[in-house]
Design goal:
Layout (H helix, E strand, L loop, with lengths): L6 H4 L15 H10 L12 E2 L5 E2 L1 H6 L7 H17 L3 E4 L7 E5 L5 H9 L7 E5 H4 L3 H11 L1 E4 L5 H6 L2 H5 L3 E4 L17 H9 L3 E7 L1 H4 L11 E5 L9 H17 L6 H10 L2 H16 L5 H11 L4 H24 L11 H14 L7 H4 L3 H10 L4 H29 L7 H22 L2
Parallel strand pairs: 3-9, 4-7, 4-8, 5-6, 5-7
Antiparallel strand pairs: 1-2, 8-9
Helix pairs in contact: 2-10, 4-5, 13-15, 14-15, 14-16, 15-16, 15-20, 15-21, 16-19, 16-20, 17-19
């Protein structure tokens, strides 16, 4: 979580350098070495005005703003971001945090990095995210969002930032994880910048390990200055590093994890790739139109079966495919209506006399509005189209009613399968199995429907 330069990362390098003070400890000595100055520690700061326009010092600036450590709150926060990222392409984690407190350092390419870490890190560590006080805590509503939804705590960027970081020392010793982005800004090209020392100073003071984490996919999910789009997010947690680790060594560890995570190919199915290539092109639209057109006349397999295979494989093409299938259904139903009006009876496999009798009765009573029941009663669309012709339902009335009824079902089914394809993106390699289950489910469902109408 950052805005321009990240306060948590740059606290030591900008405005947070140690001054003469009285606080000494083993951790303080380690901090002095990490900062590059010996025998010096931060002295208590005098109150100063924050970006939010309030007077504050170290205690009331960081400690009072620290997010709740409730295990339930952390679990709910993790569940929230896991659900959000699942809906936008999925989130995948490799590795685990060590027992006890730790300072997590990660690469930073997107605001979505915070969501990725909150979704991936276990709730028992109650992760807290360092956030720029002059941006994320500049107003009451923004600070509430940051604290409640992102477990953020404020870190000043123009002096006092080191004090704000060190205020989390007790939390670390109590077993909490503090997450910082040592680059200090979001990268734009995937390359990692140099690491600032604030995170390492905090780890040395608390005597906890530094845990490198590589994040991939967030730069595609929510690019810097870009729009949200679907993408699988991957989080890889590395082996803990000692608190005495240097900034360069920590950066190298994160860089290796990031490269490894980014380079890992998403396992996919050749069948899915081929289906997606066809579905996203002109051939896909043509097949969808012809399939639905034929089903409205005589073809026994509903276009929803095609949409289930194609929209799952190519979610981005779902709306076009569904709209095209709807157009094909309506065009085919108009032809079926005209043919039935002239006394032509086309073959209607997998239909029953009871279907035709009850649909004919409904059309005689309600007119074209009777087709509104078609999405729910299991009677094929072609039965309604043919019986509407025999009942001499006006063409315009039929087209309006059929568009509403058929459109609600076709578009809903297509978009639902597309959403399923996004949610199960990481399991694309099992697409042939999915096709088998889809076909089996369709066969069983159709058999039960036909048997119920006999």
């Amino acid at each position: 979580m950052s805005d321009g330069k990240d306060a948590a990362a740059t606290a030591v390098d900008r405005g947070g350098e140690p001054t003469e003070g009285t606080r000494t400890s083993a951790g303080g000595a380690a901090r002095a070495v990490a900062v590059g100055r010996t025998g010096a520690a931060p002295a208590p700061r005098t109150p100063r005005a924050t970006a939010a326009g309030k007077t504050t010092g170290r205690a009331d600036d960081a400690r009072s703003w620290a997010p709740p450590r409730s295990g339930l709150a952390s679990a709910l926060r993790r569940a929230l971001w896991w659900c959000v990222l699942t809906l936008t392409g999925g989130v995948e984690r490799r590795g685990r945090l060590p027992r006890g407190g730790c300072v997590v350092v990660a690469n930073h390419a997107s605001h979505a990095d915070t969501a990725a870490l909150l979704a991936a890190l276990d709730a028992r560590h109650a992760p807290a995210i360092g956030a720029a006080a002059d941006y994320w805590f500049a107003s009451r509503w923004r600070s509430r969002i940051c604290r409640r939804l992102a477990a953020g705590f404020p870190v000043r960027r123009t002096g006092g930032g080191l004090d704000d970081l060190l205020a989390m020392t007790d939390d670390l010793r109590a077993g909490r994880a503090v997450v910082l982005f040592p680059e200090g800004t979001r990268g734009a090209d995937g390359a990692l910048g140099s690491f600032h020392r604030g995170a390492l100073v905090l780890a040395a003071e608390a005597g906890v390990p530094v845990v490198p984490v590589g994040i991939a996919g967030t730069d595609r999910l929510l690019p810097k200055h870009g729009r949200l789009r679907a993408s699988l997010v991957r989080v890889r947690i590395g082996a803990p590093l000692p608190p005495s680790v240097t900034p360069d060594a920590a950066r190298d560890a994160v860089a290796r994890l990031h490269r490894r995570t980014s380079a890992e190919a998403l396992r996919d199915s050749t069948v899915r790739r081929r289906v997606a290539a066809v579905a996203a092109g002109r051939w896909g639209l043509l097949i969808a139109f012809v399939w639905a057109f034929a089903e409205a006349l005589s073809w026994p397999l509903m276009p929803e079966l095609l949409l289930g295979a194609a929209c799952f494989a190519a979610p981005a093409a779902a709306l076009r495919l569904s709209a095209t299938a709807l157009a094909g259904s309506l065009a085919g139903s108009l032809l079926a209506l005209e043919l039935a009006g002239f006394g032509f009876a086309l073959p209607a496999p997998l239909t029953t006399d009871r279907m035709r009798v009850e649909v004919g009765h409904a059309l005689s009573v309600r007119g074209a509005d009777a087709v509104a029941q078609q999405p729910w009663n299991g009677v094929p669309f072609k039965v309604y189209a043919a019986e509407a012709g025999r009942a001499e339902v006006p063409r315009d009335d039929w087209l309006a009613a059929a568009a509403a009824a058929r459109g609600s079902r076709t578009l809903t089914v297509g978009l639902a399968f597309a959403a399923l394809g996004v949610l199960l993106r990481r399991y694309r390699r099992f697409y042939p199995l999915y096709l088998g289950l889809l076909g089996a489910g369709f066969t069983v469902g159709l058999s039960l429907i036909v048997a119920g109408w006999r």
